[in-house]
Amino acid sequence: MMCAIRAGQRGRRVLILDHAAAPGEKIRISGGGRCNFTNIHAGPKNFLSANPHFARSALARFTPKDFIAMVERHGIAWHEKTLGQLFCDESARAIIHMLTGEMKDAGVEMRLRTAVETVDPRVGGGFRLRTNEGDFESSSLVVATGGKSIPKMGATGFAYRVAEQFGLPVVETRPGLVPLTLDPMYLQRLAPLSGISAPAEIRSNGAAFREALLVTHRGLSGPAILQISSYWREGEEIVISVEPDIDIFARLKAARQANGRIAVQTALAEILPKRLAQHVVEEEGVSGNLADQSDKRLQQLAAAVQQWHVKPSGSEGYRTAEVTLGGIDTNCLDSKTMQAKAVPGLYFIGECVDVTGWLGGYNFQWAWASGHVAGEVV
Question: 271, CA 20 to 30 Å: which among 50, 151, 181, 252?
Fold first, then answer.
């Protein structure tokens, strides 16, 4: 939609083909229905890609401030939550109405429930698309069909198939921003913790995120887990530090000095959720009062909480993943225009490209920015 708006404003004749029944369904469900439409901190450092510099040009040429200006021009009230995340005050539908309104003003035509079956190059340039609603021809083709995440909303690997058809490489894809699962035996041990949430820092492969951790009946979730899932690879460990801003050993030591008759579990429950405190002391085989515990024992408890090594068995997959990692290899695209270097007139934008943002509005900003720069030249 962003690409179509800009191209239409330039006087191009634009048609959007979408197999969905309504436009912007991922916008509608995002941010708990309020759409986390951008992040004021969005920059190349917040994205994963085989080429970390690829996104720099588009992100610099259409910034969060540019999208905020568009939102404010349409009178959409918004607010900032934590970590620079911007949300609509009311409904995410306001963003969809804004985009469809801008498309209408730019003379863009949109056809819904129209599935593209084949894409073929035309002799002399351009493309012919066969759909369930007939054939269409164009001088330029922009593929903005996202990744495989949330297939129940119609997500498919269409973009990757088109890329491969035209000889463009695709970086291996996998689910990102996704809850992690645990093997059944370990999950059974953690069963009493299901539903517990706590502040945590989670580390994997050189990345670290401090946000909430949530224990579920399937494994681990919450913003911190979703973030680290994009860096974690199957077979590897993650390291969890619960309440990372608290020196748990120092707190337990001070509590022992102040009142050694307090039970260890009671003292730990003043720092952690009660069920988690109980689980830790039971797992570590610690009992009795604080006065009975040596420094080494208290350090052992603190390490169990703040150096918690977990090896996930996998992830919940594309079914619940918010994004798809990998995608169209950026080496075959022009970073200033998003055009395939070897196929004039063919563009790939948004999530289908090997550019994946952190949780918190970054992937929407990549959609707006990559769509805008493509729309400038398409």
Answer: 181
SS3 track for the chain: CHHHHHHHHCCCCCEEECCCCCCCHHHHHHHHHCCEEEECCCCHHHEECCCCCCCHHHHHHCCHHHHHHHHHHCCCCEEECHHHEEEECCCCHHHHHHHHHHHHHCCCEEECCCCEEEEEECCCCCEEEEECCEEEEECCEEECCCCCCCHHHCCCCHHHHHHHHCCCCEEEEEEECCCEECCHHHHHHHHHHCCCEEEEEEEECCEEEEEEEEECCCEEECHHHHHHHCCCCCCCCEEEEECCCCCHHHHHHHHHHHCCCCEHHHHHHCCCCHHHHHHHHHHHCCCCEHHHCCHHHHHHHHHHHHCEEECCCEECCCCCCCEEEEEECHHHECCCCCEECCCCCEEECHHHECCEECCCCHHHHHHHHHHHHHHCCC
The pTM of this model reads: 0.95
In angstroms, the CA 351 to CA 342 distance is: 21
- 306 phi, psi to nearest 5 deg: -115, 0
For residue range 142-174, list pLDDT tens digits in order.
999 999 999 999 999 999 999 999 999 999 999
Give the pLDDT confidence of 168-181 residue by residue, as tens digits.
999 999 999 999 99
Q: Which tokens in the block code for residue 106?
A: 């730019």
On whether the CB atoms of residues 197 and 205 are closer than 8 A, the answer is no
Mean pLDDT of 211-240: 98
Distance from C-alpha of 149 to C-alpha of 129, rounded to nearest angstrom: 24
